[in-house]
Design a protein that fits this description.
The chain has about 425 residues and is α/β, with parallel strands linked by helices. It contains 13 helices and 16 strands.
Length: about 425
């Protein structure tokens, strides 16, 4: 379970450069895989073996300065609510501005680790100029130059030192049960979905509140299958944080998605698979979680005999290349197919934890590869000798061959499609690796 670190500050102080610097090692790799560069404001990083999620709150605001004033307060409020540690970035060239003072005022009340980071300090004179930032009342500061990375090491040492340790341990006992997170944009019907499930139902066992600090976990038993339902819908809605910006509901979902096994993405049939839902979808895909898409309010859509098929096709078009995802049409109001939704989630969970025997894999794959070998590259032939599933929590497969670097994306996708054809991995992202024998 990784901690969340938020970067706050005025525009143009270098937050994004810093953010990109921290995640480049990981993200560049992750993103190249499926061509997803959609949501660049969230990423994973690690330092000294400690992993954390990084959120750049700044990339979202457009508009004039006065709009910005209100916005930045909002972002800081949100960071204070959701993050485990906060990096507050200021710019040595501009010195202290009124907006910096506002942010500092909000941050001084916080009992979470706050790191004041003075950016663009790339020479001795600027290091002297940085002294004025003491007056923000946030104690010591760190000087960095995010453009070339100088100073980031000390900052990161202190940061990971300050992150709470116990995240992993307390999770352990809850971990035993599969966790299904219900996510989606505001007003898509997440809470109503959960209420419809639990309702006056006798199935509910206990409320485990506060296990992940802010989402409500409900132990739930259905079809003889016990799981935790993680409700992000009920997360404290502050009047101050209006849910109008895409970013906020995505950020609210980050923690729930990271801690779940399967994400039930609820969308409003009348609005479709829009940008915000797509962000949540790619977030779940990038975290390699099982995914089920629930189209809610299906009762409100004008239908003819083929509309369900058409609708599903349209959604899948938006999901490419990862289209092997179950789509369930539900209506929370009439309770139509809501148990089908859970049943589907259970299937996806089983697919995600499925282990395939090595002998079986080779028996199926070696003939396929024989018939459709990877295309030769620079007159070199790639020979794949052996395939196995890696012992990871989600499905990852290693194909051992003589020249792994010559196997390109399209062929890996071909292998992935064959895996899906022969074994049921519906709703589960699969990773295919080429390894040197």
């Amino acid at each position: 379970m990784s901690n969340i670190v938020a970067i706050v500050g005025r525009p143009n102080v270098g937050k994004s450069t810093f953010f990109n610097r921290l995640i480049q090692r990981r993200e560049a790799i992750v993103d190249a895989v499926s061509g997803v560069t959609r949501d660049r404001h969230y990423g994973k990083s690690d330092w000294n073996g400690k992993e954390f999620s990084l959120i750049d709150t700044g990339g979202y605001v457009l508009g004039s300065d006065d709009v910005f004033e209100a916005e930045i307060d909002k972002q800081v409020e949100l960071a204070i609510d959701e993050a485990d540690a906060i990096i507050f970035m200021v710019d040595v060239e501009d010195g202290i501005t009124g907006m910096d003072e506002d942010v500092a005022k909000l941050l001084r009340k916080v009992n979470k680790p706050v790191f004041l980071v003075v950016n663009k300090v790339d020479n001795g004179k600027r290091a002297k100029d940085a002294v004025e930032f003491y007056s923000l009342g946030l104690g010591d500061y760190y000087t960095i130059a995010s453009i070339n990375g100088s100073g980031t090491g000390e900052l990161l040492d202190a940061l990971v030192e300050a992150l709470p340790e116990n995240a992993e341990e307390e999770e352990e006992e809850v971990e035993a049960l599969p966790r299904f997170a219900v996510v989606g944009r505001p007003n898509a019907g997440k809470s109503s979905f959960i209420n419809a499930l639990i309702g006056e139902d006798r199935y509910i066992v206990t409320d485990v509140a506060g296990t992940t600090r802010d989402s409500i976990d409900t132990k739930y038993n259905r079809f003889g299958f016990e799981f935790n339902l993680v409700d992000t819908a009920g997360i404290r809605r502050k009047a101050k944080v209006k849910e109008d910006l895409e970013f906020y509901s995505v950020m609210r979902s980050v923690r729930a998605i990271e801690h779940s096994d399967v994400c039930l993405i609820v969308l409003d049939a009348t609005r479709g698979f829009d940008g915000q839902v797509q962000n949540i979808f790619w977030l779940a895909e990038r975290n390699r979680k099982g995914i089920v898409v629930l189209v809610n309010k299906w009762d409100l859509v004008e239908k003819d005999h083929k509309s369900m098929k058409e609708y599903e096709k349209a959604i899948k078009k938006q999901m490419e290349p990862f289209t092997d995802v179950p789509v369930v049409f539900i209506s929370v109001l009439t309770k139509q197919r809501i148990f089908k939704a859970i049943e589907t989630a259970v299937e996806v969970y089983k697919n995600r934890t499925k282990k395939i025997k090595t002998s079986k894999l080779n028996e199926i794959f070696l003939p396929i590869i024989e018939n459709y070998p990877p295309p030769a590259y620079k007159a070199k032939y790639v020979k794949i000798k052996y395939v196995m599933q890696l012992p990871t929590p989600q499905p990852q497969f290693a194909f051992f061959c003589n020249l792994p670097q010559y196997v390109k994306e399209p062929y890996k996708r071909f292998l992935e499609n064959k895996l899906r054809e022969h074994f049921d991995f519906k709703g589960v992202p699969i990773s295919v690796y080429m390894r040197k024998k």
